[in-house]
Amino acid sequence: MRWLLALFPRRMRERFGADILASQRELVRAAAARGRLAALRCRIHCALDIVVAALGERRFEMKVVRYGLAICIGLAIGWIDLHSRAVQGPALAVLLGAGLFAAVDPGAAWRWALAVGLGIPAAHLVWRGLGQPPPYPVEPGLAATLLALVPAAIGAYGGAFLRRTSAEG
Length: 169
Prior knowledge:
Shape: elongated
Mean pLDDT: 91
Order of helices and strands: HHHHHHH
Number of strands: 0
Oligomer: single chain
Number of domains: 2
């Protein structure tokens, strides 16, 4: 189980790693006295405890990864929108993408709406900044791409609502 300690931030590993391993060895020894199956179940339980605790310690890092992923997904949807005649597909993708991220972290629904929804205007701005004419120009103008925030907000708050209602029931 020593290799699972690598999931913790270095500072935590150095400070508490030996204590964690010692307490788990003690638990496994006590379980082994009740039989091999009890020892195996104890090892599995201890491994899961380490994983859950390590993920809890890396919560901030995981949030940064999720925001980065949401921005990348928003930009990918923006690139698809840039090369698409119809807006329904990208609008649905923005709605579902923002809803999925908000279902994971409902307290930040408005941030997920921005992270995913601003991908469409950003993709159009980058394309324009590169001096490329858009394959399908936006009518009436580039500001119309900000309308992507509407399905993003609906999706994000819908995802947050579903998460909260499913947690209650």
